[in-house]
Prior knowledge:
Strand order of the largest sheet: 1-2
Order of helices and strands: HEEHHH
Number of helices: 4
Structural class: mainly alpha
Largest sheet: 2 strands, antiparallel
Amino acid sequence: MRIALAILMALHGVAHLVGFAGAWSLAPEGVPYKTTVLAGHVDLGDVGIRAVGLLWLATAAAFLFAGLAAVRGTAWWPQLALGVAAVSLLLSATEWPEARIGVAINALIITALIAARWLGRLWAA
């Protein structure tokens, strides 16, 4: 299960790059540039949306790092993964409904981590 979760986190991290690319106008056709969050209710402007884009990028890198740590079986990867998934959940919620799949994936990751902890599974190696 640890390797499956590592793969899911890595793929989810790659998906976060869309948020970065959109905020920095680097996205291909089909990903519009916008300066609003919360379903268009809050306009952050160009600088604000670029800051949010950097959060998407940092979360992508953190998911990739957590996935690598899980594959290596480090003792601390579940705590990192839980923190990153919580941040990602909040970030994805600001882009609802476009990021609803991200919300579901984050909920899945968080649930799996909590369930494994509750069941007393050993996550390291």
